[in-house]
Specification:
Elements: E1 5-11, E2 15-20, E3 25-29, H1 45-48, E4 52-54, E5 57-59, E6 65-66, H2 68-74, E7 76-82, E8 85-88
Antiparallel strand pairs: 1-2, 2-3, 3-7, 4-5, 5-6, 7-8
C-alpha cells in the first residue's frame, strides 16, 4: 500500500515535491498531465502553486487532485528513508 502524502511543495516548471508518511521525498513532473482536460486549469501558475495536502493526496480544488500512488510510483526519488536515517539519493 502506498503511504500517504504528508507534505507537498509546488516548484517552478510545474514540478511537485511530495513527502510521504514513510519518510521518502519524491519529485513529480506535472507537465505531461496538463494536456488532459481534468488538469488543464493547472496551467494557471497561481492555481498550480496553491497545491496542498488533503486526506493524504495532493489537491488544488475539490475537482483537481493527484493520488499518492501516481506520485509515489512515477515520481523521482529525492530522498529515501532506509531504516532510522534518511539518505539523500544521488
Amino acid at each position: 500500500m502506498t503511504p500517504d502524502i504528508i507534505k507537498v511543495k509546488a516548484l517552478a516548471d510545474f514540478m511537485l515535491e511530495a513527502e510521504f508518511a514513510d519518510g521518502e521525498i519524491r519529485r513529480f513532473d506535472v507537465r505531461p498531465l496538463l494536456d488532459y482536460p481534468a488538469f488543464s486549469a493547472l496551467r494557471e501558475g497561481s492555481l498550480f502553486m496553491a497545491a496542498k495536502v488533503e486526506n493524504g493526496t495532493v489537491a488544488w480544488t475539490d475537482e483537481i487532485d493527484l493520488s499518492p500512488d501516481t506520485l509515489y510510483l512515477r515520481g523521482e526519488v529525492v530522498q529515501r528513508n532506509w531504516g532510522a536515517e534518511a539518505v539523500a539519493s544521488k
